[in-house]
């Protein structure tokens, strides 16, 4: 069975600032790509994995609605520690989510609410 999700977009008022935030928090480089109509930054992924991108937007950030979980497997505390120095805000620190591991809920540098997740 394949995932019903195929891609996601995360709005960014300042693309370079968002790239710096996600690279620091995820601990992996973010690839910025320039197309004739827009620049985007594709989030790290392996071939065939679900991913998405940061894209320039003047729309308000997503602080309500769906919550995207980003893998910070084995480095959740380090990821949380990178949130505020990189322009984000920790809304709810590390906490257990039953048998599914641990998460933290944060605002990214653009004001979008996201979750950072680790199974341990």
UniProtKB/TrEMBL annotation:
InterPro entries found in the cross-reference section: Anthracycline_SecMetBiosynth (IPR052164), Glyas_Bleomycin-R_OHBP_Dase (IPR029068), Glyas_Fos-R_dOase_dom (IPR004360), VOC_core (IPR037523)
Annotated ranges, domain VOC: 4-119
PROSITE patterns per UniProt: VOC (PS51819)
UniProt xrefs under Pfam families: Glyoxalase (PF00903)
Top-level taxon of the source organism: Bacteria
Name by which UniProt lists this protein: Glyoxalase
Species of origin: Sulfurifustis variabilis
């Amino acid at each position: 069975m394949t995932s019903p999700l195929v891609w996601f977009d995360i709005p960014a008022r300042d693309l370079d600032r968002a790239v710096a935030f996600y690279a620091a928090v995820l601990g992996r480089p973010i690839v910025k790509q320039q197309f004739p109509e827009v620049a985007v930054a594709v989030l790290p992924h392996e071939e065939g994995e679900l991913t998405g991108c940061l894209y320039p937007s003047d729309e308000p950030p997503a602080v309500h609605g769906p919550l995207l979980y980003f893998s910070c497997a084995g480095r959740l505390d380090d990821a949380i520690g990178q949130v505020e120095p990189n322009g984000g805000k920790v809304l709810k620190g590390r906490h257990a989510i039953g048998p599914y591991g641990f998460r933290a809920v944060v605002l990214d540098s653009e004001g979008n609410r996201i979750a950072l997740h680790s199974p341990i």
